[in-house]
Every structure is written in structure tokens, then in C-alpha cells.
Amino acid sequence: MRFVSMRLAMAGAVLAAFPLMMHGQIDFNTARTLVGKSQRDLGEISNASSTSPKEKERYDNAMRHLSEFDDGLAQNKFEKGKLDNSIDDMDNVCKNNTLRPEERDVLLGDLQELRHLRADRKD
Q1: For 32-48, how does the pLDDT look when each residue is reduced to its tens digit (9 = 90+)?
Q2: Residue 9 lies inside a defined structural domain of this protein
Q3: Which of 14, 79, 99, 100 would be a feasible disulfide site paired with 72, CB 3.0-4.6 Å?
């Protein structure tokens, strides 16, 4: 009887931890999806407009830092510093590049979602 009770207790512990393990995986998948959307939006907007060398550098910096952050996510690492760099770069694009209002709205939406991602993580 004692053996059965121990097995039930162990099974209960594993089942209780399962949602926590799945929650972490969902966070990484959600984060990677958001990063991919932000990269696509930046790429489409940068290709659709004529940009100065300085504006192109801002897009490139944002894309590079998003890629670096995504590389960590692919290895199940949430690197807040790299996310901070990405957010700063996207903010720099929004504040300093010449954008149509609808382009700025798209990037500001991505930026807001990245900020929420950062705020939601307790790392």
C-alpha cells in the first residue's frame, strides 16, 4: 500500500509540474512568433521606402538585435538584454526614420508587444 501511495504522489507531482513546463515552452514559441512578425514588418517597411544610409543602419540594427534575441529563444534562453537592445533599436526607427503613418503604427504595435513580452517575463 505504501508503494502505491508513493507512486501516486510522484505521479501527482509530475502532473502538477507539467503545466509549468508547458507554460515555458509556450512563452518561447509565442516570443519567437512575435520576433518573426517584427522582423517581417521591419523588412517590408525598409524595402518599400527609399532610405538614407542612416535610416538603413537603424533598420539593420533592429533586425540584427531581433535575430540575436531569437537565436537565444531557439535555445530556450530568454536574454532580456538582447530584447532590450531590440526594443531600443525599434524605438529608434520609429522616432527617427521617415515613415508613413500606417508604417509607424505597425512598428509601434510590434514595439508595444515586445515591451509586453519583456514585462511579462520574470527572468
Answers
A1: 999 999 999 999 999 98
A2: no
A3: 79
Length of the chain, please? Answer: 123
Q: Is the Cα dihedral 43, 96, 82, 31 positive or negative?
A: negative
Residues 6+ apart with CB under 8 A from 115: 87
Cell numbers that stand for 105 in this block: 503604427
| Inside any domain, residue 7 | no
Q: CA triplet 29, 71, 25: central angle to 5 degrees? A: 25
| CA distances in angstroms from 113 to 5, 12, 44, 110, listed in the order given | 46, 36, 18, 5
Q: What is the CA radius of gyration of the chain?
A: 20
Q: What range does the domain containing 101 cover?
A: 26-120
pTM here is 0.76
Helices 53-74 and 2-48 cross at an angle (nearest 10°) of: 170
* DSSP H helical ranges for 49-100: 53-74, 80-96
Which amino acid is residue 15, in one-letter code? L
Domain membership flag for residue 2: no
The answer as to whether 76 is a domain residue is yes
